[in-house]
Amino acid sequence: MRKLKYHVATTIDGFIARSDGSPDIFPFEGDHVPDFTAALRSYDAVVMGRRTYEYGLNLGVTDPYPWMDTYVMSRTMKESPNPRVKVVSEDGPGVVRRLKEQQGGDIYLCGGGELATALLHEGLVDEVILKVNPLLLGEGVALAPGLRAVTSLELLSTKVHRNGVVVVQYAVRR
Questions:
Q1: Which of 7, 29, 30, 96 has its CA 20 to 30 Å from the CA of residue 166?
Q2: Whole-angstrom Cα distance, residue 73 to residue 76?
Q3: HSE-CB of 63 using CA atoms within 13 angstroms
């Protein structure tokens, strides 16, 4: 069975973007970037929420991960601007369950926080990989807003980069 991995940049205080959804607070250079790029290449599919997708769309990017099958979970977006990108308006957790049962490599949960929370509630997230940035934001898009229950994690690995970014990989305990 394929694993769903919530792989996301975060501030120390748990925000994955500014309140307007912009991730511009995170460094896009440094020794952590090649590791992240290599990790992205290991995924076969990506799942993201509409606001995450629309951030790139507003920059003119209609297919952010052309080597992956791309699924955008949205109740409001009716059509995809790119034939490779599938907009899913039906039961998001059900779609993720079916994806996990298919043959293939791991699935990248790109964001956002609300989608991650919904998938955590359903027990569908297998790993949480955090790129913890040496920043305090104070407010913004939370990592897992409205999480109703404690989700226990088991540490799998850590890596500290020279620029202060710490990558922490956890397995979700069932």
A1: 96
A2: 9
A3: 10
pLDDT digits (tens, 9 = 90+) for 135-162: 999 999 999 999 999 999 999 999 999 9
For the beta carbon of residue 120, count every other beta carbon within 10 angstroms.
Answer: 20
Predicted TM-score of the model (pTM): 0.95
Secondary structure string (H, E, C) spanning 113-172: HHHHHHHHHCCCCCEEEEEEECCCCCCCEECCCCCCCCCCEEEEEEEECCCCCEEEEEEE
Structure-token match 């769309």, residue found: 57
Residue 73 forms beta bridges with which residues?
Answer: 49, 88
71-108 pLDDT, tens digit each: 999 999 989 999 999 999 988 899 999 999 999 999 99
DSSP designation for 45:
E
